[in-house]
Design goal:
Immunoglobulin-like; Thiol:disulfide interchange protein DsbD N-terminal domain-containing protein; 20 strands; six-stranded antiparallel β-sheet; single chain; 3% helix; DsbDN; 1 helix; signal; six-stranded mixed β-sheet
């Protein structure tokens, strides 16, 4: 994975909304959207990054260039767990590189489980991310907002949730197998997925599910009802690593919809 940063940006520190001044604020703003309590006893919220025209940011697996968003929630209060839903991203081709992310805005719904029911929840922390146009730059934004237990459903959060990839069952995936073989410095994985076409050019993204292990660009083609996707997995340290097939995550991006496949059987 190639990461190129040409400019360093200063960190902006504001309460819930950042980016009202110069520097990074000319390119991106961050907000906490409040979606209110759920029937499960959790609370819905979202992080929204609004980008200036011509700029994009990255998905959790950014492709050949860029940096995935990372989150630090350590300043939060009464935060037991945070589950992030990633809306289906776009695929970009720039200077011969394929990257994956969002333009205009990125809305990441977060479902918050409080540590203590009935007590206020405060989301406070920071997001580190990559931002690209003609150049690629790293950025850090902070957020701080107490969630409103009386808040209603938020249309922007509902729309972002609706843009999530289909599950394997929803996409009629009948089989997903992975064949793993050793290569110099890592492992090669070939996934064979039996499923209907998702439309147009089908692009698969393989995530190892193992910290410190990244996958190169996945090579994808179809044979009838079977989509074949292959990628090389490399450890950041260059050392050996274990791969658990149940942790492998395969996302297939297409013109009609996308599919999120969790785990694969031995192939």
């Amino acid at each position: 994975m190639l990461t190129t940063f040409l400019v360093a940006l200063t960190t902006l520190t504001t309460p819930a909304l950042a980016g009202a001044g110069g520097g990074l604020g000319n390119l991106v703003q961050i907000e906490i959207l409040d979606g209110g309590p759920t029937t499960r006893g959790t609370h819905m919220a979202a992080l929204r990054l609004t980008l200036s025209d011509g700029w994009k940011t990255y998905w959790r697996a950014p492709g050949e260039a860029g940096i995935p968003p990372s989150f630090d929630w350590r300043g939060s209060h009464n935060l037991g767990n945070v589950a992030i839903t990633w809306p289906a991203p776009e695929v970009f081709h720039t200077n011969g590189l394929r990257t994956i992310g969002y333009k205009h805005q990125m809305i990441l719904p977060v479902e918050v489980t409080p540590t203590n029911d009935g007590q206020p929840v405060r989301l406070r922390g920071q997001i580190d991310f990559g931002l690209c146009s003609d150049v690629c730059i790293p950025g850090t934004l902070t957020f701080d907002q107490q969630l409103d237990p009386q808040a209603g459903r938020n249309p922007a959060i509902i729309a972002a949730l609706a843009q999530r990839p289909y599950s394997a069952a929803e996409a009629q995936v009948s089989a997903a197998t992975c064949r793993v073989s050793p290569i110099k410095g890592g492992l090669r994985i070939e996934a064979r997925i039996t499923m209907p076409s998702v439309g147009g050019e089908e692009i698969a993204v393989i995530e190892a599910g193992t910290p410190g292990v990244w996958a190169d660009e996945t090579r994808t083609h179809r044979q009838g009802n079977t989509l074949i996707a292959a990628s090389d997995l490399i450890s950041e340290t260059g050392g050996a690593f274990a791969l658990n097939r149940s942790d492998i995550r395969i996302t297939v991006l297409g013109a009609r919809h996308s599919v999120d496949i969790r785990g694969c059987d031995a192939g």
